Amino acid sequence: MVANSKYIGRFAPTPSGELHLGSLVGALGSWLEAKKNAGLWRLRVDDLDKNRVQIGAIDSILTCLPAFGLRWDGEVIYQSARIEIYRKVLGNLLDEGKAYYCTCTKKQIAARVQMGVEGPIYDGHCRNKNHPAGKGSVRLNCEPLQGNLLHEKNAEVNWQDQFLGPQNCDVGAKLGDFVLWRSDDVCSYHLANVVDDHLDNITHVVRGSDLLYSTHRHQFLEYSLGYPHPTYGHLPLVMQPDGKKLSKQTGAQGLNISDPVPEILQALEVLGVTPPARVDRKSNISILNWILG
Fold this sequence. Notes:
Elements: E1 8-11, H1 21-36, E2 40-45, H2 57-67, E3 77-78, H3 83-95, E4 99-102, H4 106-112, E5 115-116, E6 119-120, E7 137-140, E8 156-161, E9 165-170, H5 171-174, E10 179-181, H6 189-199, E11 204-208, H7 212-225, E12 231-235, H8 261-270, H9 284-292
């Protein structure tokens, strides 16, 4: 199969533990979309927060994905190697007045602002305080921007999800000015991911629907940085019997690399795909080849 340079997807796990069924759904969904389009599939390790990185987790990820037939293209990318790049982009946003230092504590924010769909909606309290450099966290100014898809009276982003259809969100009103750089000197997930996708020429981001609101933020940040927008698609989540998302925090079990077929089939079921009886169910490679046709 000849690679399609117009399609570049990626998988960006955090090495805070072993990959589990929920991780497999995200990896498998993004890999299949890339390969169905004869594209490239990059692997990027989100190892910025050293307090979350577990010993052996990176090696586990690098072993697990090929065991399930999911092989990445090119070298593995480590976000920890790009900290100075993120810092430079942050500095540009500060210089342009698009970001600012914030000294508010979580307790102060909780006492002052309204709760939204993903926690407190930061109200821009420090937006015009001109705190000295290095003081507190850094937030993106989510006041309205002028642009083709952003209204002058609000910070609404409008975009088309590959699987969920039309999306829109007033980022400033519903999510608030969000953190780009933490007060403990760690680059945020949002800034790192947007910069990485730009650096790596990612054209398609396929990931779990729990990150839908993050994508609203990323769209706004892309506008602020003048970056092109990848195509975004959000996949179904693996849910537990109690209705909570399966995750490392809820005790999700690591994938069984010695017998990948049952979990491949489970992941495909979440994605709405059922291989016919004629497909060899003893081989995960046969299953993947059937899907790719």
